[in-house]
Amino acid sequence: MPPLDFNGGDEGYLMQLMLLLLFIWQGVGMSVTGGSWPGFRGQGDSQSNADNLPVEWSDTKNLVWDVPLPGYGQSSPVVWKRRVFVTAIDGPNKERAYVICHDLRSGQELWRRVVGTTEKVKVGNMVSQAAPTPVVDDKRVYVFFETGDLYAFDHRGRPVWERQMTRDYGGVKGPHGLGSSLVSDRENIFLAISHLGASFVMAISKRDGQTVWKAERKSGMAWGTPLLVRSAGLVELIVRGGDGVTSYDAKDGKILWWVTGLKGAPMPSPTLAGNLVIVGSDQKEGSMAIRLGGKGDVTATHIVWRPTDATAYFSSPLVHRGQVYFVSKAGIAYCLDLATGKELWRQRLGSGECWASPLAVGDRIYIFSNDGKTFVLRAGSAYQQLAINSINELERIYGVAAVDDALLLRSGRRLIRLSEKKPNRS
Length: 426
Hints:
- By secondary structure, this protein is an all-beta fold.
- It is globular.
- It has one domain (about 5-10, about 25-420): Methylamine Dehydrogenase, Chain H (7 Propeller).
- It is about 0% helix and about 45% strand.
- The strands form nine sheets. Strands 1-10-9-8-7-4 form a six-stranded antiparallel β-sheet, with no helix packed on it.
């Protein structure tokens, strides 16, 4: 596995990730502190305590750096201390996959790795292209590509282990590829494979890449990323797929509870809100809030509310300060009351689809559109727009990360860092 380039430097640092516990009712949620953004939507909730993130930006304001990326990618960046990791795919049939590491402060590329792919799939506009987001911890970055290839690298780009899922369990079947991202706890990473072939969810040891457990699932297309939650002394892995939601014991893969009868395409990822799990759908009355703590089939007992009109297409629901935010396929933003699901406001943003999930930082909500614009709103029960931002020739925003002094935007071929620049004082 020869590198294209390696300029890793001498930073064998360790950093302990601190988590802020948010206690809402009887549940426990986790919010990312300002130093790291370890996975898809941070800790799976798109919440950040980062300082010095801008409200406004442009080509000449609050833009720190803008770097091109090799190939094309739909994954989000992940951050550990001063290192930013992104993935991409290249070739007409996805012959090459990239893992790239950039310095957070300067944008300088520290290293990149290129690996061959197990499954060759013709690239198309509606086929995933490096869609799964990696996870990173204090020692390694773990990356998964929709070609079935799973890798672990240390922070300097040295390979640790690898696996080829399609070689072990069969090729990907379906028109759109795979999009589910990795999630992790201290010891394992978790992966959900949902397609028209053999589908499953599994836990894989971070240490050596070996299977800890594997649970078969009903075949069906789904792009949502699993959600790890701690509830009633258990760690649950909650997976959306097909027409239902299923909770697995993260220790051994045994099913704890499930909900059936969901409507719409299963693309948004579930979101934790205290003792509720919020599930988005692109169909009216398809989204819902599910109360944790059940056993077996809880369809009739644990659905707390369903919104009448609010929908989510690609972007996942965002929960912040007692409200739930959805963004529809048509670019309509909805704000609901978390406790009741009552609609508080709706607003057409005018930019059509939003694939990246919205972000909450303090009293602000960031919504990222497919035409490269970002809408910054005041969080709350009344609609208040603070800014609409864009950068020249920036196309669809696929993913974001938010750490102290850095809001990172990722399009197909660009990685951008924004920061609130303070005026010089003489």
